[in-house]
Design brief:
Radius of gyration: 15 Å
CATH topology: Rossmann fold
Number of strands: 5
Mean pLDDT: 92
Oligomer: single chain
Distance between the termini: 11 Å
Organism: Enterococcus dispar ATCC 51266
Protein name: NrdI protein
Number of helices: 4
Shape: globular
Helix content: 25-40%
CATH architecture: 3-Layer(aba) Sandwich
GO molecular function: FMN binding
Largest sheet: 5 strands, parallel
Strand content: 15-25%
Low-confidence stretches: none
Protein backbone atom coordinates (compact mmCIF):
# COMPACT_ATOMS: atom_id res chain seq x y z
CA UNK A 1 0.00 0.00 0.00
CA UNK A 2 1.56 3.29 -1.11
CA UNK A 3 0.95 6.61 0.61
CA UNK A 4 2.10 9.93 -0.81
CA UNK A 5 2.00 12.75 1.69
CA UNK A 6 3.22 16.21 2.53
CA UNK A 7 3.94 17.36 6.06
CA UNK A 8 4.64 20.96 6.95
CA UNK A 9 4.35 20.99 10.75
CA UNK A 10 5.15 17.31 11.25
CA UNK A 11 1.57 16.29 12.07
CA UNK A 12 0.94 14.42 8.83
CA UNK A 13 4.36 12.73 9.01
CA UNK A 14 3.63 11.60 12.57
CA UNK A 15 0.22 10.24 11.55
CA UNK A 16 1.38 8.29 8.51
CA UNK A 17 4.40 6.94 10.42
CA UNK A 18 2.07 5.68 13.17
CA UNK A 19 -0.24 4.28 10.51
CA UNK A 20 2.71 2.46 8.94
CA UNK A 21 3.68 0.96 12.33
CA UNK A 22 0.09 -0.14 12.89
CA UNK A 23 0.02 -1.76 9.43
CA UNK A 24 3.20 -3.69 10.25
CA UNK A 25 1.64 -5.14 13.42
CA UNK A 26 -1.52 -6.03 11.49
CA UNK A 27 0.58 -7.72 8.80
CA UNK A 28 2.45 -9.72 11.45
CA UNK A 29 -0.87 -10.91 12.88
CA UNK A 30 -2.41 -11.62 9.49
CA UNK A 31 -0.04 -11.81 6.54
CA UNK A 32 -2.92 -10.92 4.20
CA UNK A 33 -2.98 -7.37 5.57
CA UNK A 34 -0.67 -5.15 3.53
CA UNK A 35 2.10 -3.02 4.91
CA UNK A 36 2.53 0.63 3.95
CA UNK A 37 5.25 2.33 1.95
CA UNK A 38 5.55 6.07 2.60
CA UNK A 39 6.55 8.63 -0.01
CA UNK A 40 7.22 12.11 1.38
CA UNK A 41 6.78 14.97 -1.08
CA UNK A 42 8.22 18.41 -0.46
CA UNK A 43 8.98 21.54 -2.47
CA UNK A 44 12.23 19.99 -3.73
CA UNK A 45 10.71 16.71 -4.94
CA UNK A 46 10.75 16.33 -8.70
CA UNK A 47 7.59 14.69 -10.08
CA UNK A 48 7.84 11.12 -11.26
CA UNK A 49 5.32 8.76 -12.80
CA UNK A 50 3.39 6.68 -10.29
CA UNK A 51 2.53 3.32 -11.81
CA UNK A 52 0.97 1.61 -8.79
CA UNK A 53 -2.21 2.45 -6.85
CA UNK A 54 -1.71 4.95 -4.04
CA UNK A 55 -3.41 7.09 -1.41
CA UNK A 56 -2.75 10.75 -0.65
CA UNK A 57 -2.58 12.28 2.82
CA UNK A 58 -2.68 16.06 2.81
CA UNK A 59 -2.95 18.69 5.55
CA UNK A 60 -4.89 21.90 5.08
CA UNK A 61 -3.17 25.26 4.90
CA UNK A 62 -5.30 28.05 3.46
CA UNK A 63 -5.15 31.82 3.29
CA UNK A 64 -7.60 33.42 5.77
CA UNK A 65 -11.34 33.70 5.22
CA UNK A 66 -13.98 31.07 5.88
CA UNK A 67 -13.23 28.47 3.21
CA UNK A 68 -16.45 29.09 1.32
CA UNK A 69 -16.76 32.67 0.05
CA UNK A 70 -13.08 33.39 0.53
CA UNK A 71 -10.01 31.86 2.12
CA UNK A 72 -10.11 28.71 0.04
CA UNK A 73 -6.73 29.19 -1.65
CA UNK A 74 -4.33 26.37 -0.84
CA UNK A 75 -0.89 27.38 0.38
CA UNK A 76 2.21 25.34 1.23
CA UNK A 77 1.02 22.00 -0.24
CA UNK A 78 1.11 22.83 -3.95
CA UNK A 79 4.09 20.50 -4.54
CA UNK A 80 1.93 17.50 -3.66
CA UNK A 81 -0.87 18.69 -5.94
CA UNK A 82 1.62 19.10 -8.80
CA UNK A 83 3.05 15.62 -8.14
CA UNK A 84 -0.40 14.03 -8.41
CA UNK A 85 -1.23 16.09 -11.51
CA UNK A 86 2.00 15.01 -13.23
CA UNK A 87 1.39 12.88 -16.34
CA UNK A 88 -1.21 10.18 -15.52
CA UNK A 89 -0.50 9.91 -11.78
CA UNK A 90 -4.01 10.87 -10.73
CA UNK A 91 -5.52 7.82 -12.45
CA UNK A 92 -3.78 5.58 -9.88
CA UNK A 93 -5.02 7.52 -6.87
CA UNK A 94 -7.41 5.41 -4.79
CA UNK A 95 -8.44 8.25 -2.50
CA UNK A 96 -7.54 11.25 -0.39
CA UNK A 97 -7.26 11.50 3.40
CA UNK A 98 -7.27 14.97 4.89
CA UNK A 99 -6.17 16.50 8.14
CA UNK A 100 -6.55 19.85 9.76
CA UNK A 101 -7.74 21.72 12.78
CA UNK A 102 -11.46 21.60 13.54
CA UNK A 103 -11.21 25.12 14.96
CA UNK A 104 -11.14 26.31 11.36
CA UNK A 105 -14.75 25.16 10.80
CA UNK A 106 -15.54 25.04 7.06
CA UNK A 107 -11.85 25.09 6.18
CA UNK A 108 -11.30 21.79 8.04
CA UNK A 109 -9.83 19.34 5.47
CA UNK A 110 -10.77 21.66 2.61
CA UNK A 111 -7.51 20.98 0.76
CA UNK A 112 -8.21 17.23 0.72
CA UNK A 113 -11.73 17.85 -0.56
CA UNK A 114 -10.34 20.09 -3.30
CA UNK A 115 -7.84 17.38 -4.30
CA UNK A 116 -10.63 14.79 -4.43
CA UNK A 117 -12.70 17.02 -6.71
CA UNK A 118 -9.77 17.97 -8.98
CA UNK A 119 -8.48 14.42 -9.38
CA UNK A 120 -11.91 12.74 -9.42
CA UNK A 121 -11.12 10.35 -6.60
CA UNK A 122 -12.88 9.79 -3.29
CA UNK A 123 -12.35 11.78 -0.13
CA UNK A 124 -11.93 8.77 2.16
CA UNK A 125 -11.43 10.07 5.67
CA UNK A 126 -10.24 12.85 7.92
CA UNK A 127 -8.48 13.25 11.23
CA UNK A 128 -7.57 16.22 13.37
CA UNK A 129 -3.97 17.37 13.82
CA UNK A 130 -1.86 14.25 14.66
CA UNK A 131 -4.87 11.99 15.02
CA UNK A 132 -5.56 9.43 17.72
CA UNK A 133 -4.95 5.67 17.95
CA UNK A 134 -8.64 5.19 17.06
CA UNK A 135 -8.11 7.33 13.94
CA UNK A 136 -5.17 5.10 12.97
CA UNK A 137 -7.29 1.94 13.24
CA UNK A 138 -10.30 3.53 11.52
CA UNK A 139 -8.35 4.91 8.59
CA UNK A 140 -6.33 1.73 8.09
CA UNK A 141 -9.61 -0.19 7.77
CA UNK A 142 -10.89 2.38 5.25
CA UNK A 143 -7.71 2.03 3.19
CA UNK A 144 -8.04 -1.75 3.18
CA UNK A 145 -11.54 -1.47 1.71
CA UNK A 146 -10.72 1.16 -0.92
Amino acid sequence: MNIYYMSISGNTRAFVTNLQKYAITQHEQNSLNPTITLHAIDDNTLPESITEPFFVFVPTYLEGGNGVDNGDQEILTEALREYIAYEDNAKNCLGIVGSGNKNFNRQYCLTAKQYAAQFDCPFLADYELRGTPKDIERIYQILLKA
